[in-house]
Specification:
The protein is α+β, with helices and mostly antiparallel strands. It is built from eight helices and 15 strands. About 35% of the residues lie in helices and about 20% in strands. The structure holds asparagine and zinc ion (ZN). One of its GO terms (molecular function) is metalloendopeptidase activity.
Length: about 325
């Protein structure tokens, strides 16, 4: 019996045609990745208990791009987990979610008509519903990166999931989920600063969230105000999402990959972008070095300024723009 690491091919609902690192076990191939901490993908069979069944077949070709084929959503989720692993490794030298080399499980086809996805520390897994009528899985790559990043936040800052720290927790997932989408740079999913723009959660093909102008979703905050922490964490996140967009790309209007952004600022503050790669380094260092479970927006400003000082120096352009970008979302000194 031969066991080994293989390269299979998949067609996801959202990722398009991609290579997958799989495992050969006898005459079967499995969605298990020994090169990335044993990450795997399981079929929940539309149930909600247990961890489901490992995807296996005899061809090492997975999915056909349609949601009707049970393997297609698995291709998205498994590929998304692989790109998230690679992103953290290559960008921050982080070896898996807990930095211990252990890969996470992705569970697809959870429940029926389930319109959500979530991370759970206790199973060290992320889980995806099949969406409306079980025909719209929530397996876009920025969602995969978002959910896995909840595991990273839990293993590092441990930001409490309520109040302003909850907004920072959610924003950390949106920021790194977006970074994973840019890292993957898929022709089938041109990277952008919007969240869930392919999964049609609103039924009218609009994204779930907009980092350039969070209020475009009708609920999120563009900037800080006293009481912003009373919003749902998926809306108070807007302040930090907007900060990250501004720090990356700067204020004003911009078009990238065919996506049109217009990022207004408080008091017409002018921000000059330092690029998303540097902005992500600042955020990751703040998250893993300075954030605690109770960090609020004022604390996040201090933490990112310290991180930028560590990385680029106190008098650097990068540090100055961190301060300017926070001012632009009404988080002051
Ligand atoms: N998809 C949601 C999220 O990851 C689930 C939740 O509300 N925690 O934020
Ligand atoms: Zn989340």
């Amino acid at each position: 019996k031969f066991e080994g690491i293989e390269t299979g091919s998949g067609k996801g609902v959202f990722v398009g045609s991609v290579d997958l690192t799989t495992t050969q076990s006898g005459s079967q191939y499995q969605l298990q990745d020994a090169s990335r901490g044993g990450q795997s993908a399981n079929d929940m069979g539309n149930g909600t208990s247990g961890n489901g069944t490992l995807f296996a077949n005899a061809t090492d070709q997975w999915g056909d791009g349609t949601a009707a084929n049970r393997e297609s959503a698995a291709v998205d989720a498994y590929f998304g987990a692989a790109k998230t692993w690679d992103f953290y490794k290559n960008t921050f030298s982080r070896n898996g979610i807990r930095n211990d080399g252990v890969g996470a499980l992705s569970r697809v086809h959870y429940d029926t008509g389930y319109v959500n996805a979530f991370w759970d520390d206790s199973c060290f897994c992320m889980t995806y519903g099949d969406g409306q009528n079980d025909s719209a899985p929530l397996t876009e790559i920025d969602v995969a990166g978002h959910e896995m990043t909840h595991g990273v936040t839990s293993a590092t800052a441990g930001l409490n999931y309520s109040g302003e720290s909850g907004g920072l927790n959610e924003a950390t997932s949106d920021i790194m989920g977006t970074m994973v989408e840019w890292y993957a740079n898929l022709p089938a999913n041109p990277p952008n600063y919007w969240i869930g723009e392919l999964i049609n959660l609103n039924g009218n093909n609009t994204p779930l969230r907009y980092m350039d102008q969070p209020s475009k979703d009708g609920s999120s905050a563009d900037s800080w105000y006293d009481g912003v922490g009373n919003l749902d964490v998926h809306y108070s996140s807007g302040v930090a999402n907007h900060f990250f967009y501004l720090l990356s790309e700067g204020s004003g209007s911009k078009s990238i990959n065919g996506f049109d952004y217009n990022s207004p600022t408080v008091n017409s503050t002018s921000v000059t972008g330092i690029g998303r790669d540097k902005a992500a380094q600042v955020w990751y260092r703040a998250l893993t070095t300075y954030f605690t479970s109770t960090t609020d927006y004022a604390g996040a400003r201090d933490a990112t300024l310290k991180a930028a000082t560590d990385l680029y120096g106190a008098d650097s352009t990068e540090s100055k723009q961190v301060a300017t970008a926070w001012a632009a979302v009404n988080v002051g000194s």
